[in-house]
């Protein structure tokens, strides 16, 4: 099954993204704990794109495509037209550095990398696709 969702780049739309993901994953009999972790990971990537790549510009959009392959694998494609960020090349800060510096952010992408089995950035001329894979 494939599901599509398109939203303006506004932080207020993150709740709609989470609701969409919750509904789609629950409809496909994905266990609740898995649903919650996947929603967390996809929400983090979407939030980073909305905030950092699009600067919360509601005239820009991101698209979310979810492909469910039975109960064995789920693929999330997050498509945007902003500045590409290669999450695969992201170097994680150490937790101790985050604590020492009293930073409020910095652990979201660490969580995404731990939750997902594979993360790809497919850069195109007019769009970027952030592809997240998870085996169930």
Description:
It is a single chain. With 136 residues, the chain is an alpha+beta fold. It has a single domain (2-135), classed as Histidine kinase-like ATPase, C-terminal domain (Heat Shock Protein 90, 2-Layer Sandwich). It contains 4 helices and 5 strands. The chain has helices at 14-27, 32-53, 95-101, 108-115; strands at 2-8, 61-69, 73-80, 118-123, 128-135. Strands 1-2-3-5-4 form a 5-stranded antiparallel beta sheet, with helices on one face. A hairpin with a 4-residue loop joins strand 4 (118-123) and strand 5 (128-135). Helix 1 packs antiparallel against helix 2 (32-53). The protein is globular. 20% of the residues are buried. The model has no long low-confidence stretch (mean pLDDT 86).
Output the keywords:
4 helices; globular; 136 residues; alpha+beta; Heat Shock Protein 90; 5-stranded antiparallel β-sheet; 5 strands
